[in-house]
Design brief:
CATH superfamily: MFS general substrate transporter like domains
Strand content: under 5%
Structural class: mainly alpha
Radius of gyration: 20 Å
Oligomer: single chain
CATH architecture: Up-down Bundle
Shape: globular
Distance between the termini: 13 Å
CATH class: Mainly Alpha
Number of helices: 16
Length: 422
């Protein structure tokens, strides 16, 4: 049976092409973000400047999220993703030109810094559309009975790119500098664009084409609010990511606390993704649909513990191990969350539900970066990280106590229903 085949989704040609597109895009995006973090902190030596990077991206990402979800549900998904990749490529080219040695020499530091923030802001606008579009496109490529398997491989691909992207950024900065490292980003964006053209156009499954925007947005929000499994998973993960955003402060740990340079920075940045990727490979063989609620609570609790250990460590290898296991626990959380969303979201609302997800979880990464930068400025870097991990633990314990229905969440019946539907 397909559900027992860990490679079931990979037997679909277009899904493999989709994974290649996602890898190239996530690699480029994560590499670019790391390069920007490194450059901005090198210019300012101020934790607050790192927080502003997150804020500049989260404002447009959150502000446009619901509107983007409405558009995604109304439009053809492949063409929309092509436009997103074109937008990202233009942004990357802008950053490449902004860090040109002659520009750096002739322009003031403040002008260059503001230019970086401007392009990050534009990136937030693009990202508001990418998340819902990718989420919706997966469901049009694989049959419903393979959603959990596809979610595992899609998330694994995301993690592989998240491993190689940051590590490559750290090494590339050391070898060829910030400016030429951004040319690599542009190259991978073009790879994503070219391969996306190999995927055929998909049908629009929303029967309410032309529905008024406000009515469409209200329907999407109402669905998420009434579907407690989705609401619980998104809320829990949002708070954990918001307060567990230690990754945003890694340039400070690498340069000032652990003193390991750009190479060590790349290793630190890649460690969580390595752990998450290995975990998600295992979940391809061991389904997580049974007792999903308790597994999600346990995973995020473990994530909080790892963040606290990382914050307290002043030894490089302990810090790497702590970040690795934070990725292990985050990998479990990601697969469970994506499975919940795929199984419990109807086809005609995928864009809007994914946009709410991006507001809750995706944007909380950037909001978490802002929170980390602010608390690091106010209470010190180490204290800020330990505070974030502690708040994550409190959130998990509170959720487990006040929501017994979430503790009992089990996805096996939903999976069986989709198999019968196919």
């Amino acid at each position: 049976m397909a559900k027992k085949d860990p490679y079931a989704a990979l037997r679909i040609k277009e899904f493999n092409i989709f994974l290649l597109v996602r890898f190239a895009l996530v690699f480029a995006w994560s590499m670019q973000f790391i390069i920007i973090e490194w450059e901005v902190y090198s210019i300012t030596k101020d934790p607050w400047s790192l927080g502003l990077i997150g804020l500049m991206e989260v404002i447009p990402a959150v502000g446009m999220a619901l509107f983007a979800g409405h558009i995604v549900d109304q439009k053809e998904k492949r063409v929309l993703l092509i436009k997103c990749i074109i937008g990202f490529t233009i942004i990357s080219l802008g950053l490449f030109l902004l860090t040109w040695p002659r520009v750096v020499q002739d322009w003031s530091t403040k002008t260059i810094l503001y230019g970086i923030y401007f392009f990050v802001f534009l990136g937030g606008l693009v990202r508001a559309f990418i998340g819902p579009t990718v989420f919706s496109l997966i469901a049009l490529i694989v049959p419903k009975k393979l959603y959990p398997n596809a979610a595992t491989w899609s998330s694994s691909t995301w993690q592989v790119a998240s491993v190689i992207g940051p590590a490559s950024a750290g090494l590339s900065i050391s070898w060829i500098g910030v400016h030429w490292s951004l040319s690599v980003v542009v190259g991978f964006a073009l790879i994503a664009f070219i391969n996306l053209l190999r995927i055929s156009k998909k049908p629009i499954l929303n029967p309410k084409i032309g529905e008024p925007v406000m009515q469409s947005l209200k329907e999407g929000i109402r669905f998420v609010y009434k579907t407690k499994a989705i609401l619980g998973a998104l809320t829990l993960d949002m708070v954990a990511v918001l307060f567990g955003g230690a990754v945003a402060l890694l340039p400070i740990f690498a340069q000032d606390i652990l003193k390991v340079g750009s190479e060590g920075f790349g290793v630190l940045r890649a460690a969580p993704a390595v752990g998450a990727f290995l975990t998600m490979l295992i979940t391809a063989y061991i389904p997580i649909s049974k007792n999903a609620g308790m597994k999600l609570l346990g995973a995020i609790f473990g994530f909080g513990i790892c963040i606290i250990v990382f914050g307290l460590s002043s030894i490089f290898w302990i810090s790497v191990v702590a970040l690795f296991f934070s990725g292990v626990t985050d990998g479990v959380s990601m697969v469970i969350r994506q499975t919940i969303l795929q199984l419990k979201t109807p086809d005609n609302m995928r864009g809007r539900v994914a946009s709410v997800n991006s507001m809750f979880v995706g944007s909380s990464n950037e909001l978490g970066a802002f929170e980390s930068g602010l608390t690091a400025k106010l209470m010190g870097t180490v204290t800020a990280v330990v505070f974030g991990g502690t708040m994550t633990l409190i959130t998990v314990i509170t959720t487990g106590i006040v929501s017994p229905s979430f503790r009992k969440l089990d996805l096996r019946k939903d999976l069986e229903a989709h198999e019968k539907e196919d």
